[in-house]
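Service request form, structural biology core

Requester: graduate student, group of Dr. S.
Request type: structure prediction, single chain
Budget code: on file
Notes: please return the result as structure tokens.

Sequence provided:
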Amino acid sequence: MAAIEVKVPDIGDFKDVPVIEILVKPGDAVKKEDSLVTLESDKATMEVPAPAAGVVKEVRLKVGDKVSEGSVVLLLEADAAGAKAAPAAATPAPAPSPAPVAA
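Core staff response, request fulfilled:
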């Protein structure tokens, strides 16, 4: 099995985007494209997906941390079959619904 550093993908011109939710913990098994963490910019929320199937080895951030493109999210011990085709970072999935806006 190969260890993959999962990083924040291209999130546009945003810098220092807060982590609002961590969806996995060390030891969790994930499938490719499973959501790992949720980030919230001033325009939208976005989830960082797993680039490959595997087991979460180490989470490198916590809720409230500020991240930018290229920040390491976690270490993933990838399944041998999935590790060959897995990129270092994946494109973020679009948020299923817009963030609530205070009136």
